[in-house]
Amino acid sequence: MANLVLKFPNNLRSFSISASAYSNGSPPGVHQSKGPVILELPLDRIRRPLMRTRANDPQKVKELMDSISEIGLQVPIDVLEVDGEYYGFSGCHRYEAHQQLGLPTIRCKVRRGTKETLRHHLR
To answer: Keywords in UniProt for this one (predicted)?
Structure first.
């Protein structure tokens, strides 16, 4: 077991440490069979089928951009994975903030679903 020494500035508000090399304990591309996993996904891999039907609040997006720039994304967006494709139905403001900041990826809480689950979300 390796020893690790961390030094923090006195004005540090919060931090987190992961004991795994990967956020969900599995290498990228390896899905666990139960429950959601946390993955960093490229924005262009996430389909947003309801984007055209909803408008985001520009002020909320701006506030999130400021927060993400300062402390990073605090709450992952929820994503449904069906047959290797990723679908986002929530986290619209966080997703747009990442887009406007030019960030290539976003942290996602991914759960697996069936085509029937996807149809249910599209209703």
So the answer is: Antioxidant, ATP-binding, Disulfide bond, Nucleotide-binding, Oxidoreductase
Question: Is 31 a known ligand-binding residue?
Answer: no
120 appears as a binding residue in the annotation:
no
Query: Any known ligand binding at 108?
Result: no
For 2-12, b/e burial (b = at least 16 CB within 10 A) is eeeeeeeeeee
Q: What is the pLDDT of residues 10-55, one digit of tens each?
A: 554 544 444 444 444 444 555 445 789 999 999 999 999 876 667 8
pTM above 0.85, yes or no: no
CA distance to 20, 27, 32, 82, per residue, from 95 (Å): 26, 24, 25, 19
Whether 122 has a pLDDT exceeding 60, the answer reads yes
